[in-house]
Amino acid sequence: MGHWWERNIIEPGKLPLLLALTAFVLTFLITRVVTRLIRAGKGPFRNISGSGGVHIHHVVPGVVLTVIGGFGSVAGDGHGFGALISAVLFGMGVGLVLDEFALILHLDDVYWSEAGRQSVEVVVLTAALVGLMLVGFLPFGVDDLDDEELQDRGAVMVSMGTNFLIALIALAKGKARTAIFGVVIPFIAVIGAVRLARPTSAWARRFYRRRPRTRARSWKRAYRHDRRWTGPSRRLQDWIGGTPDVAPPELVSAARPALPAGPSRSSGPTGPSEPADPPERR
Q1: Which residues lie closer than 8 Å to 48 by C-beta, 6 or more apart?
Q2: How far apart are CA 84 and CA 171, in angstroms?
Q3: CA distances from 268 to 124, 168, 265 (A)
Q4: Are the C-beta atoms of 174 and 198 separated by less than 8 Å?
Q5: DSSP secondary-structure letter at 136?
Q6: Residue 173 pairs with which residues in a beta bridge?
Q7: How far apart are CA 156 and CA 159, in angstroms?
Q8: How far is it, in rounded angstroms, from Cα 276 to Cα 112?
Q9: What are residue 266's DSSP bridge partners?
Q10: How far is CA 165 from CA 4, 86, 122, 254, in A?
Q11: Which of 88, 93, 134, 281 has the fewest C-beta atoms under 10 angstroms from its C-beta?
């Protein structure tokens, strides 16, 4: 274990990254536990309010910690106790900020709403990507090149450009998660690029418009995929971040699009109305 730690963490200089990732995950989990206790009215924790009764979201101290840890890491040489402290502060700050990512995105307090699930998705995605970097998967998949290939800058640029293009195709097909992970692991992006696009994606609107069979297959595959994975994904998000509040019925009905009005039975703007249909004889 000591040899593995020295060779894979200490020698490559990944200890600050490991500490930042650990602080990031622990801060997010502790924050979610505290907010769920506050929501349930249990424990000694309460919301923090400033002067005038303004609710102070934890994204505020998160930004402060991110700034301190980020500038501390830039100012240091990446070694020593100061670099480790900066990495921990940076990880804690990012955990607090991304826990309220949906609030920043919508500029509204949607923490416990359906839109608040986006915060959990971003945190899980960030932790996965940083974890891949920690175990050795660098962006664009060029970390497996040997010395001769590294000297050939043209080959490196072509590899990076090709991987990035494939990830863009997957993104255009409506597969954002596949595209992001594909930047780190190109094979994942290839899978997303060669499969059918989601029916609401830019790719489908551009290339499936005059291909009804392909468009129908796209809708069918998207329906099956969502039916299979939406439930488990939502249960996992609820287990990690808490179950969102149920929207009031009036808000749900207000969000539904209005149905188009049916054809008028009048003969014109000022003309008489047509008589009603006679009742059926029984």
Answers
A1: 55, 56
A2: 35
A3: 60, 54, 9
A4: yes
A5: T
A6: none
A7: 5
A8: 51
A9: 273
A10: 35, 35, 23, 41
A11: 281
How does pLDDT run across 205-246, given as a tens digit for each residue? 999 988 999 999 999 999 998 888 888 888 888 888 888 877
3-state helix, strand, coil in the chain (%, to 5): 70, 0, 30
pTM over 0.90: no
Structure tokens at 240: 């990690």
pLDDT (tens digit, 9 = 90+) per residue, 107-149? Answer: 988 888 888 888 998 998 899 888 888 877 665 555 555 666 5
Whole-number Å distance between alpha carbons of 72 and 90:
9
Distance between CA 77 and CA 132 in Å, rounded?
A: 24
CB 266 within 8 A of CB 273: yes
Contact 161, 169 (CB under 8 A): no
Cβ atoms of 100 and 60 within 8 Å: the answer is no
Structure token pair of residue 96: 């607090």
Is 180 within 8 Å of 205 (Cβ atoms)? no
